[in-house]
Amino acid sequence: MTSLTGVGIGRSLVVGPVLRMPDRLPEPATLPSTIGPDGERERVTTALAATAEDIRSRGEKAGGKAQEVLEAQALMAEDPTLRSDIDVRVDNGATADRAVFEAFAGFRDMLLGIGGYMAERATDLDDVSQRVVARLSGVAAPGVPESDTPFVLVARDLAPADTALLDLQKVLAVLTSEGGPTSHTAILAREKSIPAIVGISGILDMADGTVVIADASTGAVTVDPSEEELRRAAGETAARAQRSAVPVGPGALADGTPIPLLANLGSAEGVEGAVAAGAEGVGLFRTEFLFLDAKTAPSVAQQYGHYAKLLRGFPGRKVVVRVLDAGADKPLSFLNDAPEENPALGLRGLRALRATEQILRDQLTALARAAGETDADLWVMAPMVSTVEETRYFVALARELGLKTAGVMVEVPSAALLADRVLAEADFASIGTNDLTQYTLAADRLLGSVASFQDPWHPAVLRLVREVGRAGAALGKPVGICGEAAADPLLAVVLVGLGATTLSMSPSALGDVRAELLQHTREQAVAFADAALTAEDGATARAAVRALLPQHV
Amino acid sequence: MPERTVVVASAHGLHARPAALFTQAAAKAGVPVQLTKNGRSVNAASILGVISLGIDHGDEVLLAVDGEGAEDVLDELSGLLTTDHDA
């Protein structure tokens, strides 16, 4: 047997055969056709019809919203305008493969040119194009492989379009060769509670059907395990199921120190699920969904309805709402859609809102109104705050508009380093570990080639968290964590050791984190934090903390 | 050629699902249907053509139908455009 390692997401251990997701196809060559236009046209007709039929039958299987998306894709494959475009290219001597590729690319560029919602349809069109070209060249269609029995999906990385189609009944775990702990694959895995291990080198060399043991808690993949290893894996799975069957209740350490566990939500739709998973409130409510599809900013009345629905779900509980977080990476025509060389370093978050203050005023007004009519304890916070002056500005504006509790997100190292000054102005701080990691290590979190830098275990990130934790303790102000880091059970304990007073995460991660917190005292959490802080990088920090864990049999 | 000007009612304009419903109906009509916005005309049975017009809520578009039963087709298609499918 051999063993491979990556970064694990979740705590589960699974055993199963692997199936490889085919890579994207290479661009078809521009060679002239050898069979002539009539022959090529016939190939096009067959491939388009078969692809439409295939997509439609997948839609019938999927049902619901997925079927609507797939039906639109089938219509794209049958589109008469697209067909005329392909025919012109074939008549000019192109092969069917090349003509299909170019025609689809032309329409894709046009959709991207329209921007916004239309640009998202470009991904759908690309998927159809790949499927038709795959059929023409007689290779497997890219996308999630289909199987009647459960399997472990192996891929280079998953795109959002792939993940929408994942059949959760069939995919036991996802193993990728690329991607870091905040890649699409990792985020999806956390949301849907699928165990995943990302960034495993050598994983793509495995043949379909090879059996593996994938342990997300250690990031280890055992290839072709022995009988003995399989037996041990089964025992371990049972032991873990028992350990994580902690009754839903308030988050606390082994010594009884309460650590409230809150939910990250992206819309009011998730409220019931979060309450069922035992969320004690909301630690991060993202408001972008109200704005992203809009041409103009939503009115106070429109926003109020959504906020009231959210707040009614948590009577008497804390709900932290983040005001609109947009910028050149999430462009909105009414906010800031000027192209920027470095969107992550541009006019985004609070900076963009301040430049268009009415949008911020309207949002805070709607929030204050909703808070006045419900029993929830509403806190508001600003994203991408980098100075004390910005903190003062936001807190003053929130108070002026009638909000009781106003704080800031700590995502920029400058805000963490000056946390004592920032927290003197703000009522609380909430650390966004994804952006804090991106800015600390100067690595674009959306760029695969630097994904290995995006590790919230990195001691440089943890030292900044410590600054905020210390400042919060000294001033008696709450310090929450609302990045993906809080969803990593062991890292959650480290963050508590660094001074975090609450943890907020995807509701699906609450159970694992609750179970892990109950295993350790505050003293142990501080010892874990000390071990991690003195490591030289993320991997050694993780290893140093693991070495302090009591050995499981 | 019989024509009709209508104002699109879907809250999110003619994207995705409403566009699919509309092009399917246009294709079923069995006669050529043209959709025009701001002087640009496309085949109404082409989903890519229709979404390329970038039609938003409240936009004015022109439907033109040629051939037998043109008035009935106009009735059906303008009915689809003036219904809010996102509601």
UniProtKB/TrEMBL annotation, chain A:
Domain PEP-utilising enzyme C-terminal: 249-520
Catalyzed reactions per annotation: L-histidyl-[protein] + phosphoenolpyruvate = N(pros)-phospho-L-histidyl-[protein] + pyruvate
Domain PEP-utilising enzyme mobile: 151-219
Keyword Cytoplasm: yes
Record-listed E.C. numbers: 2.7.3.9
Record's subcellular location: Cytoplasm
Cofactor(s) needed by this chain: Mg(2+)
A Pfam family annotated for this UniProt entry: PEP-utilizers
Primary location group: cytoplasm
KW Signal (keyword) present: no
Keywords: Cytoplasm, Kinase, Magnesium, Metal-binding, Phosphotransferase system, Sugar transport, Transferase, Transport
Domain Phosphotransferase system enzyme I N-terminal span(s) in chain numbering: 6-121
UniProt similarity note: Belongs to the PEP-utilizing enzyme family.
Role: General (non sugar-specific) component of the phosphoenolpyruvate-dependent sugar phosphotransferase system (sugar PTS). This major carbohydrate active-transport system catalyzes the phosphorylation of incoming sugar substrates concomitantly with their translocation across the cell membrane. Enzyme I transfers the phosphoryl group from phosphoenolpyruvate (PEP) to the phosphoryl carrier protein (HPr).
The protein, known as: Phosphoenolpyruvate-protein phosphotransferase
TrEMBL record, chain B:
Residue ranges of domain HPr in the record: 1-87
Listed Pfam families: PTS-HPr
Name of the molecule in the record: Phosphocarrier protein HPr
CDD domains recorded: PTS-HPr_like
Subcellular localization: Cytoplasm
Function according to Swiss-Prot or TrEMBL: General (non sugar-specific) component of the phosphoenolpyruvate-dependent sugar phosphotransferase system (sugar PTS). This major carbohydrate active-transport system catalyzes the phosphorylation of incoming sugar substrates concomitantly with their translocation across the cell membrane. The phosphoryl group from phosphoenolpyruvate (PEP) is transferred to the phosphoryl carrier protein HPr by enzyme I. Phospho-HPr then transfers it to the PTS EIIA domain.
NCBIfam families cross-referenced by the UniProt entry: PTS_HPr_family (TIGR01003)
The entry's keywords: Cytoplasm, Phosphotransferase system
InterPro entries from the UniProt entry: HPr (IPR050399), HPr-like (IPR000032), HPr-like_sf (IPR035895), PTS_HPr_His_P_site (IPR001020)
